[in-house]
Design a protein that fits this description.
This protein is of the alpha/beta class and about 425 residues long. Helix content is about 35%, strand content about 25%. Bound molecules: zinc ion (ZN).
């Protein structure tokens, strides 16, 4: 890791968001410098701007790294991903509940073995960095050590990560079942040891309302009140069969969302993956509580779950940001995820502007997670987690890019055609990450 004295300058094209550009590409919401420079000191951003304004601030001893025409931008933030599902990506084409039973639960049972968990955690973090994802909100398995080994591996790499053990005490295979008491004990220990240590954060993680008893959800709510800066992370309204099942399990709740709200699990720093089958009352309540949605288009299409409604979420003032949801999701790449988000909008007669797609993959996630002062954008003092994208990474990308003039055109080409091959470099706290 960098010592505080070390300074370096990075030159290239720079894209940086300060706010949501919305559907109209509000020019005040972002900065783009065709020839920009970023000065990093002690792992933090010292200054950023047009190269001719920023480079004179560099002193003679400073390393200047010229990335040419490549695009320097904040690292991607994946707001919902399951690291234990790394090995079930691209399994079958079944619907959610069947897919859980057939592939996911057996894969998660293997995490009782800490060595297996450690090996998957290392591969998983390599894969995130290869794809330019520098922070993620991650589900472990029911096993406490699944989170411990992930935190250990993330800490060794200096990564900012959010993770939690899943709570499941019913409607799942016996080896994956905890109890309200055991789950709470594990969470307390993990929070005390890991939350706020290095760049790590804990998330209270009931898998979804169907796999936790009332007693367990009550316990999760109690802990969420006791630790207001701890995250809450779960699934909500992904699939029609799931929604019908929740209605049977919780007949007194007006909706699926209401189940979580009743247990005190809807608040700032709460993220719910999918949020497809919500009504206007639900969306308004999510917005009022400050909870956010993880929009995971590759998973929603792969499992045939449904389409996230961007326009309705905007109309309600609801927070949302992009997520891969591997392994229901079919790619670790946030670029591939943006491309699918664009298509999900198209299928509903909506539009997703390319600028906004890049915002949803970076600053939107940081804001939803309450981390915008630290990551997700270039501002003096923010943490220097950034990536360099190569607009000529493949022959087709280079050819199509050569014919694109405006920034919007170039970003659309990038998100439609690029993947991890275009991630030329990933920097964590200003330090280049070696490819494994
Ligand atoms: Zn998920």
């Amino acid at each position: 890791m960098m010592t505080p004295q070390q300074r370096s300058a990075h030159c290239g094209s720079i894209l940086n968001f300060n706010a949501d550009p919305g559907q109209q590409d509000d020019p005040r919401a972002y900065d783009f410098w065709e020839r920009g420079a970023l000065i990093v000191a002690g792992g933090r951003i010292e200054s950023v701007g047009p190269a001719d304004a920023v480079l004179p601030l560099a002193d003679g001893n400073m390393a200047v790294i010229d990335h040419g025409t490549r695009l320097i931008m904040p690292g991607f933030i994946d707001t919902h991903i399951h690291y234990p599902q790394t090995d079930v990506i691209a399994s079958g084409g079944h619907n959610l509940l069947e897919w859980l039973e057939r592939y996911t639960f057996p894969a998660e049972e293997r995490f009782a073995d800490a060595d297996h968990a450690r090996a998957v955690a290392e591969f998983f973090l390599d894969e995130l960095l290869r794809n330019g994802t520098t922070t993620a909100q991650v589900l472990g398995t029911v096993h406490r050590q699944s989170v411990e080994v992930l935190f250990q591996a993330a800490a060794a790499r200096g990564l900012r990560m959010i993770a939690g053990k899943t709570l499941m005490d019913r409607n799942c295979p016996e080896p994956l079942r905890d109890s309200p008491e055991q789950g709470e004990r594990d969470m307390r220990e993990l929070i005390e040891v890991w939350h706020g240590r290095d760049r790590l954060h804990y998330a209270i993680t009931p898998r979804f309302a169907a796999t936790s008893s009332v007693a367990q959800l009550q316990g999760a709510g109690r802990l969420a009140r006791e630790y207001p800066d701890v995250y809450i992370h779960s699934h909500l309204a992904e699939n029609r069969d799931e929604v019908a099942w929740i209605r049977q399990l919780f007949p007194d709740s007006r909706s699926y969302l209401d189940v979580y709200d009743r247990f005190g699990l809807l608040r700032d720093r709460a993220t719910y993956a999918h949020c497809i089958y919500l009504d206007a009352v639900d969306r308004a309540r999510m917005a009022a509580r400050g909870a956010g949605a993880a929009f995971a288009p590759t998973a929603n299409l792969y499992l045939g779950s449904g389409l996230f409604d961007i326009a309705a979420s905007d109309a309600a003032g609801m927070r949302f940001a992009l997520a891969t949801d591997v392994g229901g999701g079919s790619s670790f790449s946030m670029l591939r995820t943006m491309a699918e988000a664009y298509k999900v909008a198209q299928l509903q007669g909506q539009q997703l502007s390319p600028l906004r797609a890049f915002y949803l993959a970076t600053l939107a996630g940081a804001r939803m997670l309450g981390l915008a002062e630290r990551i997700g954008r270039f501002a003096p003092g923010s943490e220097a987690d950034f990536i360099v994208l190569d607009p000529e990474a493949t022959p087709l990308l280079a050819r199509r890019m050569a014919q694109s003039r405006t920034l919007t055109e170039r970003l659309l080409v990038m998100m439609t055609l690029a993947d991890d091959r275009a991630v030329a470099a990933t920097y964590i706290l200003g330090t280049l990450q070696e490819r494994s």
